[in-house]
Amino acid sequence: MKTTFGEYIRQLRTDKGFTLTELAALLKLDSANLSKIETGKREFDEKRLERLANAFNLDIEELKTEYFADQFAKKIYQYNCSTETLIVAEEKVNYLKSRNVKQDEIKF
Amino acid sequence: MKTTFGEYIRQLRTDKGFTLTELAALLKLDSANLSKIETGKREFDEKRLERLANAFNLDIEELKTEYFADQFAKKIYQYNCSTETLIVAEEKVNYLKSRNVKQDEIKF
DNA sequence: GTAATTTTGTCATTGATTGACAAGTATAAA
DNA sequence: TTTATACTTGTCAATCAATGACAAAATTAC
Q1: Which of A28, B20, B31, B92 has the maximal Cβ count within 10 Å?
Q2: In chain B, whose CA is at the least distance from the CA of A93?
Q3: Strand C contacted by A43 CB (< 7 A)
Q4: What is the CA radius of gyration of chain B?
């Protein structure tokens, strides 16, 4: 899945034959704003991921992957970050996880 | 470099023997707020990356890598994102780049 | 002790995001 | 070409989060 998150939503929506108004109602937002989201002029709000998953019977974890990957990609593209950035990010995730394990150990 | 961005700044600062007040002045922020940044209670503002690079004679690209990797890692950790997320992000970066190349081709 | 440094708490200001709605364009069917 | 439906764009007030600023507490070094 190489599309942006907006294109991804549009794909899902049109595949199911929904109009903007119909999907917007399910997501509790304005159809005009959903249009902007699909065309990349606004961001999709993380709070609505679950409603989106329900609307299309999607696995919430897959959706989260698409959503956050999209955010990271946009930042990297926008700021012209080095290719290393994502590798370093992974190291830092592991660091945060290991650090928290240690904190837990201390706590109890 | 597996530390958080805050820990990284603190490392740089103490290595050079700067006080919070001294570095804060170079970065044009309050020493109390720099303390919060170093201890992870606030975020470092992207606008100040260049000043930080100057303060310690660092390569701005390396600094950007640290900075954005830190942001991504925190999000992934916070939202418990799948390990795939960063891989998908890389694909999306490539997608955005290729898409823009195409746009350029159309434009001119 | 006290002086310097660092941390924590608070809050008004600022800035960005969002919801909402109006007005526009595009598409399709009669 | 009219009408209906779907989509897009522009705008702006309201809302929310991030920031700067400063006071005061805690920690560290002398």
Answers
A1: B92
A2: B73
A3: yes
A4: 17
**Domains along the sequence of chain B with CATH:** 5-80 (1.10.260.40)
Tens digits of residue pLDDT in B44-96:
999 999 999 999 999 999 999 999 999 999 999 999 999 899 999 999 999 99
Backbone angles phi, psi at A28, to 5 degrees: 55, 55
The span from the CA of A87 to the CA of B87, in Å, is 10
Q: Which nucleotides of C are covered by protein (CB under 7 A)?
A: 4-9, 17-23
Average pLDDT over residues A52-58: 95
Are A24 and A30 within 8 A, CB to CB?
yes
Helices (H), A16-83: 20-27, 31-38, 49-56, 60-79
Contact A42, A24 (CB under 8 A): no
